[in-house]
Design goal:
436 residues; alpha/beta; Urease, subunit C, domain 1; TIM Barrel; 9-stranded mixed sheet; 8-stranded parallel sheet; 17 helices; 17 strands; 21% strand
Length: 436
């Protein structure tokens, strides 16, 4: 890959990418999130070019047409011209489920799991989510922000340009606010896009073990109103599980979120199935943007999800790292018409990876998604999971200039090369990284 002139760091650049071997635009006439056969529509242009100005995509087409255009001839000296030399370019990945606001890895949990302990056993012994609390509570906002920024940069190195970032490792009013402020601080220093989520209902902290309702009240009457007032998050999430929050507690927290103008997403069906009818109730009452994990979803729930625009966000990195044999039923979901997204679930306990290409590989090998389905799930459907489809997830005029360039000749190589980063360059809202 070659570039015609140096860049100004951290500012959107007028840039023309030319000689793209395969440009995966993902343009489609389909309205709404991709489902069924439309999940395989990549709308590939060969020997392509993309022009970006002021952080937006303004033109998409063939290289020969781009270089002959009178406007280009007149303004060529003002552009950063990148020769992609036949490589693959696709929309920047939209990682719609991450937990970056933590301090330390959970190495004791890692060793216990290797020795045979289950997720539930580790949690009951005081490990898991609760083992991250003390360090986050003690950390300064600046220290947390440094860690979040490091995670965002690692994501970008793998082709990700949009990240959903959750709190959830403080579980006090002050530490959850601090975590979201740290995410906001890091987001200002990263040229990509960050969408924040309050996950105060990640687990019941030890000090509330015998007073669960008091903690639910804290989330509903203090955390959610404070976050809404400070505009620190767009979404509220709840870990609805036997080891975390019940269906009734989840419903109560979501009602408070809606009351304060925040949108909904949920950890669902990761370790066990929720009560009969609960997913149907969520879909019809609070219309969540996304239900995530979905390992134990029932047939009737799949059928109900197919009627809605709520996205099933699958995170196979967690299944891989936890060493479980069961993966989310991607084929059943897709074949039934449920819109499916893919995300890393980047976190210190169950999925310590920022790599969307690795997640794509797991989706293909363990969930039998095709490479085309996996790429659409990681781009345009990730954008739908964050309710950003008007800005993210496809390469077409008017969208944000979010592009990822991969040193491969065929898009199917992206999930094929396991645990290998072939991403050579990303454009994040018009900012080119790394600097050329």
């Amino acid at each position: 890959m070659s570039t015609r002139r140096p860049l100004r760091p951290n500012s959107p650049s007028p840039v023309l990418l030319i000689n793209i071997g395969q440009l995966l635009t993902l343009r489609s006439a389909t309205h709404g999130p991709r489902r069924g056969s439309s999940l395989s529509e990549l709308a590939i242009i060969e020997d392509a070019a993309v022009l970006c100005l002021a952080g937006k995509i303004v033109s998409v087409g063939k290289t020969k047409d781009a270089v002959r255009d009178p406007w280009f001839q007149k303004n060529r000296k003002k552009l950063i011209e990148i020769d992609c030399e036949g490589q693959v370019v696709l929309p920047g990945f939209v990682d719609s489920h991450t937990h970056p606001a933590f301090i330390n890895p959970r190495l004791i949990d890692f060793e216990k799991r290797i020795a045979g302990a289950t997720y539930e056993q580790i949690a009951e012994a005081g490990g898991g989510i609760r083992s991250s609390l003390e360090s986050v509570r003690k950390a300064t906002r600046n220290r947390l922000a440094e860690n979040v920024l490091g995670a965002l940069r690692s994501c970008a190195e793998q082709g990700t340009t949009t990240v959903e970032a959750k709190s959830g490792y403080g579980l006090t009013l002050d530490s959850e606010i601090k975590s979201l402020e740290a995410i906001k601080q890091a987001a200002r220093l990263w040229p990509g896009t960050v969408v924040s989520t309050l996950l105060g209902a990640h687990a019941v902290p030890r000090e509330f073990r015998d007073h669960r309702q008091a903690y639910v009240n804290l989330v509903c009457t203090e955390m959610i109103p404070s976050v809404a007032k400070k505009k620190l998050a767009r979404f509220v999430d709840v870990f609805c599980e036997q080891t975390a929050f019940s269906e009734q507690e989840t419903a109560t927290i979501f009602a408070a979120a809606v009351q304060h103008g925040l949108e909904i997403r949920a950890h669902m069906s990761q370790l066990s199935a929720p009560g009969e009818g609960f997913i149907d109730s969520l879909l019809n009452c609070v219309q969540p943007a996304s239900l995530d994990h979905m390992d134990y979803i029932r047939h009737d729930e799949i059928c109900e999800m197919a009627k809605h625009e709520t996205v099933a966000t699958l995170v196979p990195g967690a299944n891989y790292f936890l060493g479980v044999e069961k993966y989310p039923p991607a084929r059943k979901l897709i074949d039934a018409g449920v819109p499916v997204a893919l995300a890393t679930d980047f976190n210190p306990g169950s999925s310590p990876t920022p790599s969307m290409p690795f997640v794509l590989s797991l989706a293909c090998t363990h969930m039998k998604m095709s490479p085309a389905e996996a790429i659409a799930a990681a781009t345009i459907n990730g954008a739908w999971a964050l309710r950003l489809p008007d800005r993210k997830g496809t390469i077409e005029p008017g969208k944000d200039a979010d592009l990822a360039v991969f040193e491969v000749q065929d898009y199917r190589e992206i999930p094929y090369w396991v645990a290998t980063n072939r991403c050579t360059l990303v454009v994040l809202n018009g900012v080119i990284s790394p600097e050329l």
